[in-house]
Amino acid sequence: MSAQWLRRNDVIPVLFGIACLLAFFVLIEILVASGKINPFIVPKPSEIVTSFGRIIADENVLSRFFVTCGEALAASLMLAVTGIGLGVLLHRLRLLRLATETWVAAMASAPLVLMYPLFLVLFGRSVWTVIMIGFVAALPPVVLKTLEGLSGTRAVLINVGRSFNLTPSQLYWKILFPSALPTIFVGVRLGMIFALINIVGVEFLINFGGLGQLVNELSERYDLPGTFAAICFVILVSVVFFMATERIERWLRPGT
Amino acid sequence: MASADSILVVEDIVKRFETPDGVLTAVDHVSFDVAPGEFLAVIGPSGCGKSTLFNVIGGLLDGYDGRVSVAGETVSGPHPSIGMIFQEESTFPWRTVIDNVAFPLEIAGMGKSERYDKARHFVGLVGLDGFERRYPSELSGGMRQRVSMARTLASEPKILLMDEPFAALDEQTRLLLGDKVLQIQQDLKQTTLLITHNLTEAVQLSDRILVMTYRPGKTKRIVDIKLPRPRTSEIVGSDAFGHYVAQIWNDLREEASKGLKDDEQRVARAGAVRK
Amino acid sequence: MAAAGHMTASGAPARTGGMTLRRQVLLLRIALLAGLLGIWEAAAASGLLFRDVVPSLLTIGRSLFELLAVPDFQWEVGITTLWVPDFYRHLWITMAEVGAGMTIGGFSGLAVGLALGANPFLSKAFERFLYYLGPTPKIIFFPLMIMWFGVGPGSKVAMGTISCFFPIVLSAAAGMRQIESVLIRVGRSFRLNTWQMVTKIYLPAMRQPIVNGVRLGLGVAVIGTLLAETKLSNRGVGFLIIDAYNTFDMPRMYSLLIVLFVVAIGANALVGRASRG
Questions:
Q1: Residue B113, domain member (yes or no)
Q2: Predicted-complex ipTM score
Q3: Quick one: closest CA in A to B149, which residue?
Q4: Options 1.10.3720.10, 3.65.10.10, 3.40.640.10, 3.40.50.10140; which CATH number does A44-252 get?
């Protein structure tokens, strides 16, 4: 999606979009400066920018960033292994799939992250509560996407394999799996993004760990420009994460 | 044609399917044989069981009566001597052109450099030199079908079995690819069985044409095509070509109109059920 | 489960050993459920694993009954007073908050999405901001929402609104671009005016993506609203869950989660049905 935004004749609308955003910030700046907007409700954009340096220096943003990244990485690894594993299992055992696929789909539409108080009881206010919530809440889509990819292999490709007398394991590894891989990547990427969102969210809610906690602490101190800056930082991290997974996905699936 | 010389013998094939409307006989006592180096086309209207026949001969379908044998050996399951080209797009999107073509060689356990050399030869044979490193998504439909063809030819099958390989292509591309097939057939002395519903294609390429009836699919007639070889697509302009097309269309028209009428009735019935 | 394995080799006939597939599936489901509940009960009885966190099924059942069927609250509805379990009042508050958020976020999202889908210039200028803002954690905006809309339902509705806005905008915009151009040309050939084009061609052709967007939106709106309730509130299902945690009433927490999941899954299925109808 982003590649087509880089085309040359798109430069004008893109610049227009950025200009509008900047104009909006300037307008807010003026309105706050002139007292039309209460500065205790919306801080000046310039103040937010200057407090970036302050929170980076005073609030250990870098180490918080690594805490959150580590949690997201752990959850993602668990997701990939368990999610793909369960998807493959359900695909191989047809009866099990028929019995449980609707259950998994139902779980995918349930607000699983609301179980965080339960995990809090199980693991205490620890990094494991955060990781487990990221993992559990994002697991169903990874399982479903793996299953979709494997069973979505076009019949003619399987027939090509059979016409070349492939053994069942060759059929699986040379045809079924590579054909499913793009869909599986979509699932894992979706899961990773879900996991990051929930991890930051739970950090904020239980006031523990990385970047989510930073937002909570600054807001509890009524440091409004700092809160805004921290939120901007979290958004920035999520966007970079999102773009990076997008890149990796495209790099991992040639020819599609 | 004596069955002793034949490389592919199809004897008395009957295949029935159970459908909600009762038992459907898709292929009804069809027999024929193909001599080495011969090009035989099976033509028939949609729904005459051509594709069922393709799957039976290719060993992709079982539960039929009759016998298919290759060089005297009964076929059960896909036979290594039969190479299949499918109607649908069947290149592997995750492999480059050269890796697609090298696929059967890789399965056969051939070493890397040897199989690439060989695959390159077949890529050249279908006229795709220079596209070895491209992915199928970068190619046109006609080019992709040629990749499938090269992939099947690379396994050096004794018999090439094709199911409407050019059905998804436009008429001009189809004629030009027909030239390619004629040339390859001539160079490799490739025994070929083509399943098609396209009259021009059948006459352009074949030595003999088997015309099938509409449901149940039986042999209506076998026509010898005595057009000179080597041929090119220019042959479609000749009087002899026109004569063969007219003759076969005469047989085919009757069957195709049965099919059309049958479709209309089926739709009307389905509508009645819904009410 | 191992026994299930060999029966399900690919291409297995619909009948195996005289038992229909449907029956086998039903039996497997019952077996799986019984197995899971059995393991749970054994863990609860032994007290070895997560003591106090795994209450016996009977305790959870009793708590579920108390939650749903024991009246402990006088609810004044109009002129009448109902004697109902307090849970329903909280459920009603949460549903009203989610509904309000969905209405505001849904209609504004649809309007913005249609504008972006119809106008390539606007889409190129602004859509990528929304595209990249979509998959970010929304709950961290909650402190600002409290500041702007107060600690009451207002901030929860705001959370629901900003949560569901993004998926709906993006699905509507993408859905509009995906309409087959021949349908639009058909509409033009019949000389439809703009309003007719929107109501007779665009919206019907976009039904599927819009329903999908609403479905995704509903899911995140429920999450946004409930998480906000767990953070700072004295009403709503989210508050009840965090309250059960604070009082360490585990059976009650399980009951609440079960009911919440059933309601959320049911609502999702209901919206999904709208796309097929």
A1: yes
A2: 0.88
A3: A160
A4: 1.10.3720.10
